[in-house]
Amino acid sequence: MLDPGDNSELPPIPGKRYFTISEVSDLCRVKPHVLRYWEQEFPKLRSVKRRGNRRYYQHHDVCLIREIRHLLYIEGFTISGARNRLMHDGEPPAEVRAQALALLAEGLEEVRRLLTSDAGPS
User: Fold this and answer.
1) Which of 18, 32, 56, 72 pairs with 49 at a CA distance of 20 to 30 A?
2) 1 lies in some domain
3) Tens digits of per-residue pLDDT, 43-69?
4) Is the dihedral of CA 35, 27, 51, 16 positive or negative?
């Protein structure tokens, strides 16, 4: 039985280019049917399918699977919550984006004023 323990207990990821679903299952301690289900639920997670419809995962996919596993099993997120967290990961909060846009608009307005004052009648 694969135990959903802490990610620190997971084995290191070998320096390979492609991993089979059984290798990923062992590396991430998640059963293969769970990996197939997560592919349907998480748009960022896409395996490469080759001969015989066999799934192959790349290094970044294994890292993403470990992150999904951590969000679901360790932090207690729901599938929907984990999906939202991954989609918005790295994006600043709305108020920070609004402040940045306001500063950008002020800067552009200043540039426009400078250009129109320099481009006066000659």
Assistant:
1) 72
2) no
3) 889 889 888 889 999 999 999 999 999
4) positive
